[in-house]
């Protein structure tokens, strides 16, 4: 699959989604210790000196990891913090990777880092990522800190409930509550105050105002408990979100860290996979995983390629075949030549490409972000109205009205709503990749559900893309059948023509010695075997030799109407045999077309081949709408004609001539194994194992993702609506508000993660 490597290596996502421009994919091993909107960074801020030591100043690019940035609101806060630095040329945010690249002169780096830190965000250098062990330790430390805050908050509640109502005990209780708030909410207050000073309303600002207000009006036990519960629930939520984000990165662990490499003295040594050079020879034994991509030099084996292509059936591999990192050698010992370094394997590039795709927002996600941008300020205004207007207009007690307003602020948290879409999209992308389908963005994942017509190229898409011997007929009794086939095999084996290769591959037997071998351009080949002259040629050559008969013409016509290429074996006495070669339909194509039909999706064949061949293949797989003899522009016009009815049209192809049609379709799908670089660059979806059944599978996944997206939106908004009503007219407390908000967040996260379970 060398073309796949090139296409993945060269692919660049357009940066047009709401100002997002995506930085490099990050080290997937980096573990996060921060929650969506209110957690504390485990890393220390990187110094400018460290950055200048690891990144050439000439690049003008400052690359940072911001552990506590993974919500659109957090991104907006950082953008606002950097607005005053005029020398910044471009900002590139990678929310899934919690990373930021800033194109600016090195002289501006101290101001950039200072502005980000002032906004409440710590930064880390990408040149020194957190190891999995360090990340796990930081997670445990974070969890223990928040559990400690919860214990201290419970102590504050106990003091409030059991201690006498005295000034001393009140002071003690307030001190304990303040300790719990400081332990759990320092990061929240830091970012919240920064947001308020900039006139922004995000969850950090809302929680800061709500907790501080509750403390001031004497509800200090509740303020402490709310902050502790909120931060702990946010941490749990962040871990769940990371499970979706790491679903693809986890595939990287499938590649062994070590490989057995042939040394200069002929011995074998086990070395780190990252140190193995291209062109080195690596040995893999039965039952072992491959650590690197390569091309088989010696040996035969069945390889489980499901981590890369999603194929459930092992694929036989022999000399000359491509093998990929992360796959499993099920039997036989193989030696292969390394074709890519460990950091550049097909598996690694799939992972990186999907990580980039996570940053491309789906339409529903953009809609939710726009709604959240209006919703949060609206609820803040409502809370102010309740705090000030209700006592003046309805005679409510001031403290009761202020308390209700603070409850409203907690309920106003948009996290459940904002996070409902990205976690679902990321899970969908991961689910597809686990099945060998690479979707280049959430927009394509969501749009695939709308497809009503799938246009397909023939060669390499519906068919295998290479000629194969499909029929052989011996026409003489003068020579034994086995000898006739052996003669044909011997002549065909000497030729490089694809048709001859197909005949040689399809016939058994050991090749005979061929003398005076010659190839006749546009005709076939000829040679002498055991002193007798033979030709293996096309219909025209046999006619020129005056060896055609009515019976032979009829036999050839039977095959030609099926789109087969006929080759005839003859000697000076007459015709000995004919061989029919054709590009055969893939076994999976008929199932794919049938499944699309059951889903209400029509299949259309678009091909540059002749009509007879096209209709023959179409009949085999169940396609009735066939459009043949099409040039590339003709395929484009066909796509436009199919879309004229207003229905969404998909295009599946693999060749250079398919690229214009792929670019025209609503959703374009390329065959990632046999496809050309140009076709894969133009496509929105890559099918890594060239199996057409992945097309209906992708449409079904798109429908499931869309359903889960709206389930999550309904859950988030429904719970908000209920508690907004209770807060204003009922007896909702801050406890209830924080449980409702975090409960909604966890519900939508785990609902989105269901997509991963279906792909496992």
Task: Give an account of the 3D structure.
The chain is an alpha+beta fold and 760 residues long. The protein has a 7-stranded mixed sheet with strand order 14-26-25-24-15-22-23, with helices on both faces. A 6-stranded antiparallel sheet has the order 6-5-7-13-8-11, with no helix packed on it. Strands 16-21-20-19-18-17 form a 6-stranded antiparallel sheet, with helices on both faces. The protein starts with a helix and ends with a helix. Among the domains are: 256-344, Calcium-transporting ATPase, cytoplasmic transduction domain A (Distorted Sandwich); 443-453 and 587-695, Rossmann fold; 464-584, Calcium-transporting ATPase, cytoplasmic domain N (3-Layer(aba) Sandwich). It has 26 helices and 26 strands.
Give a summary of the structure in a few sentences:
With 760 residues, the chain is an alpha+beta fold. β22, α21 (611-621) and β23 (625-627) form a beta-alpha-beta unit.
Name some characteristics of this structure.
760 residues; alpha+beta; Rossmann fold; Calcium-transporting ATPase, cytoplasmic domain N; seven-stranded mixed sheet; six-stranded antiparallel sheet; 26 helices; 51% helix; disordered N terminus
* Total beta strand runs: 26
Radius of gyration: 33 Å
Query: For the largest beta sheet, what order do the strands appear in spatially?
Result: 14-26-25-24-15-22-23
According to CATH, the fold-level topology of the domain at 464-584 is Calcium-transporting ATPase, cytoplasmic domain N
Unreliable sequence segments: 1-59
* SS class: alpha+beta
Helix content: 40-55%
How many individual helices? 26
> How far apart are the first and last residues' alpha carbons, in Å?
24 Å
Q: Could you say what the CATH architecture of the domain at 464-584 is?
A: 3-Layer(aba) Sandwich
Overall morphology: elongated
CATH superfamily of the domain at 464-584: Calcium-transporting ATPase, cytoplasmic domain N
Which oligomeric form is depicted?
single chain
Mean pLDDT: 79
Largest sheet: 7 strands, mixed
At the first level of CATH, the class of the domain at 464-584 is Alpha Beta
